[in-house]
Amino acid sequence: MAAAFAAIGGKWKLTLLYWLAHGESHFAGLRRRGAPITPKVLAEQLRELEADGLVERVETGPVPARVLYRLTPYGTSVLPVVEGVRVWGEAHIERTQGAVAANAAMGCAEALT
User: Fold this and answer.
1) Which tops the pLDDT comparison, 44 or 64?
2) With 80 as the cut, is the pLDDT of residue 18 above it?
3) Cα–Cα 20 to 30 A to 85, which of 7, 44, 79, 107?
4) Alpha carbon distance 37, 60 (integer Å)
5) How far apart are the C-alpha atoms of 83 and 24, rounded to whole Å?
């Protein structure tokens, strides 16, 4: 458990993995997802995911070129966990706050490209 939480237990890591399961994105694109994540924390979480081999950073040209982030093949191995947490979260909201419209298209049991 300790190793898993070290790799994916950051405040935004599961959310970032979920977003990247739906396609590669650049830094600003991840910030625009509507989450209240600061640029500093986003950069830290992405660096940690990259260090653990779950996300790769792809430079698209010379500086100041746009940098893309995407899941690595190893990163896709954690998607069933991300999907399980998402499904549990929906059930928790339903249980505590009332009905929630389930949307299967929001799933990420495997990378959606």
Assistant:
1) 44
2) yes
3) 44
4) 24
5) 18
Assigned token pair, 113? 């490209």
Q: How far apart are CA 46 and CA 57, in angstroms?
A: 9
- In 3-state terms, what secondary structure has residue 14? helix
Contact 74, 54 (CB under 8 A): yes
What's the token pair of residue 71?
């899941």
pLDDT confidence of residue 113: 46
Structure tokens at 60: 């698209």
Cis ω before 36 (30° cut-off from 0): no
Query: Rounded to 5, what percent of the chain is helix, strand, coil?
Result: 55, 10, 35
Mean of pLDDT values over 3-20 = 92
